[in-house]
Amino acid sequence: MSRAEVETVLRCYPRIYFACHRRHVRDEQTGSVISAHQASVLDHLDDVENTSLLDLARHMGVTASTMSLTVDRLERGGYVTRERSGEDRRRVDLRLTPAGVGIKRQQKVLEPELVAAVLDRLNERNRRRALRGLELLAEAASDWLASKGAKT
Predict the structure, then answer these.
(1) What does the alpha-carbon distance between residue 10 and residue 17 come to, in Å, rounded to a whole number?
(2) In 8-149, which ranges are E strands?
């Protein structure tokens, strides 16, 4: 593998992402719009298992106070519940509400209509080649993650 191959991925991936990523998510039940960042926070939460606010903040690379502001908005929107841990009263636990689960289910990193528009710009042969290349890259990524997880 060459440095030029790595540079090709680093150059191409952001162009695809910026052309096709979802900037906002609309709650199908209420019509409310939440930011892609707020939706990504919901992706890290569960409706059964609690996640501590501090652990979530660390994982997402922000301060606890910054995460608290985001969670405030999500809580006001009815997507997250926040409560003190029964084991450690200093700990704030977060959990998805049914509305939060709904947003998480509909959340996609890329907007399907935009992906279709980009794919439509390719002829059939190049579309098949591009999709096969993405499948191979995704398989390699999954294999790498699985081997990384097996070592930890």
Answers:
(1) 11
(2) 24-26, 33-35, 51-52, 80-84, 92-96
Cα of first residue to Cα of last residue in the chain, in angstroms, is: 26
Q: Answer yes or no: are the C-beta atoms of 78 and 97 closer than 8 Å.
A: yes
Residues 56-76 have pLDDT tens digits of: 999 999 999 999 999 999 999
For residue 152, what pLDDT is reported? 39
pLDDT interval class at 150 (50, 70, 90) = low
CA distance linking residue 80 with residue 53, whole number of Å: 11
The three-point CA angle 30-65-82 to 5° equals 50
Q: Residue 106: CB partners within 8 Å, gap ≥ 6?
A: 25, 28
